[in-house]
Amino acid sequence: MAEGHGHRLWIVPDGYLASTPEGCTGPTGYFSHESVCILNDGDEPAECVLDIYYENGDPIKGLCFTVGAERTWHYRMDACRDHAGHLLPRDVPYALRLSSNRNIVVQHSRLDVTQPNLALFSIIAWTDGS
Fold first, then answer.
1. Residue ranges of the chain whose pLDDT lies below 50
2. CA distance 69 to 9
3. In angstroms, how far is CA 51 from the centroid of its own chain?
4. What predicted TM-score, i.e. pTM, was given to this entire model?
5. Which of 59, 55, 34 is nearest to 110 (CA)?
6. In angstroms, what CA-CA distances link 74 with 27, 56, 64, 104, 121?
7. Which DSSP state fits 86?
8. Is 36 within 8 Å of 123 (Cβ atoms)?
9. Got the DSSP string for 47-81?
10. Cα dihedral sign for 25, 109, 35, 43?
11. What pLDDT is recorded for position 35?
């Protein structure tokens, strides 16, 4: 069995889902969103748990999902729902903690179309080596 690369605990301290004005998708047809991109290059599924933290609100903990063996998954934060089925709020800073029972690699990406030049960034999340 191949454990796969990466670690079991990942942190993304800078999350922010910018609002996209009604009917505005930017000059290329895109709309503002963020993704948590996960690679499981191991030979067994990775059981993942996502916790979301806010500056001025209670955290949303225990959002569970599976990334299949030797698969990737792009978890779109604009489609993420809390336990009650509500979408995450826009224009509110947040942070993420992603844990897994297997080694995974995590990348965080943001596309912001709220200004004419657009903005895209992508980073590898922080890990403590777990």
1. none
2. 18
3. 10
4. 0.84
5. 34
6. 23, 27, 14, 13, 15
7. P
8. no
9. EEEEEEEESSS--EEEEEEEE-TTEEEEEEGGG-B
10. positive
11. 85
Three-state DSSP state, 26: coil
The pairing of beta strand 33-40 with beta strand 93-112: antiparallel
Decide the pairing of beta strands 60-67 and 33-40: unpaired
Rounded to whole angstroms, how far apart are CA atoms 86 and 1? 38
User: 107: which residues sit within 8 A by CB, 6+ positions away?
Assistant: 36, 37, 38, 39, 122, 123, 124, 125
- Residue 122 CA to residue 37 CA, distance in Å, equals 10
For residue 59, give the amino acid letter.
P
17, two tokens:
């889902």
Q: Which residues pair with 98 in a beta bridge?
A: 10, 50
pLDDT tens sequence across 88-112: 888 899 999 999 999 999 998 877 6
**CA 15/CA 27 separation, integer angstroms:** 23
